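hey so i finaly got around to running the thing on Membrane protein YkvI from Paenibacillus antri. pasting the sequence first so u can double check i didnt mess up the copy paste, my clipboard has been acting weird all day
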Amino acid sequence: MKRTAATMQIAFTYIGTVVGAGFATGQEILQFFTKYGSVALVTILVSTGLFIWLGTKVMLLANEIGAASYEDLNKHLFGAKWGERFSLLMLVELFSVAIVMLAGAGSVFREQLGMSFLLGIGVTLALGYVVIMGGMKGIMAVNSVVVPIMLAFTGIVFYRTTQNADFLTFEWLHQDDPYLPGRAWIAPLLYSAFNLASAQAVLVPLGAAVKDRTAIRLGGAIGGVGLGALLLVGHISLSTHAPVIFQYEIPMGLVVAGMGTAIHLMYLLLIYAEIFTTFIANIFGLSLQLEQRLRMKRRTIVVLALILCFGISFVGFKALLSTLYPFFGVLSLIWFAMIVVRQRSSA
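ok and heres what it spat out for the 3d tokens, dont ask me to read them lol
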């Protein structure tokens, strides 16, 4: 029973850490997979395999070396000098993505609920502080609630999609690919690299905290499969609305439109919840690294980080997203390549 509980907590935390606002809106799935047509079914399998393999590897390696933070892992992989430098860049990435998520939370309150942008930020900061100060147990507890709800919601949406006349014709399986074939195969690598590099902030301390390596392996496998299933279901749901779906900034909104008020409210809740899980994961990982570098208590570091996020978040969700994400995509791909090479050489 202990192993089963640990396995599912690892799987849910893995899924909840990777899945964020871009996934919830459907924009990530659309840009990395759906827009490439029928080949997306295969590239989703590629991405799923990478999530299972490398996500589990990161947690097992962290467990093996007893890593206190992702900086310990990077130093082990790339040496003390380059590991420290790379970790500093990752620190900037974590902080920047946290700011983007906080701005996104404010946008959900303002644009979707008709409430104050400031209220959305304030609620997120308050809840975030409580969860982060609970440590890894707090992170796992939140994901153990959010992820099952997200899986249930995705199942409902997929079921409703299968009742759609466009789904039953299976025309979505035969979309023409207007893009170069090379881009379609690079997309799953970019997607997996960015998400795994960001997720290491939680996967590393998670792997170090769980003593049962079998539970880590099972949790990593279930989490990776879960991520792949979510990608596949999301892709199919979006594809049945092509080509009009490509005109929407929040494409999943079109999918759930007409499914009733209850589904729509559940969807808005999940968007916020997925923004929140990414936000707390990044601030948590950031606080662990800074605690190693600075002679400050974690509580003080968390409070200062939240205050800085609050100040910068007013730049806006869209502006931050378009400016920061391309750079971090390249940075993550470098990390991705280095960890693959290191794992191959140590196999």
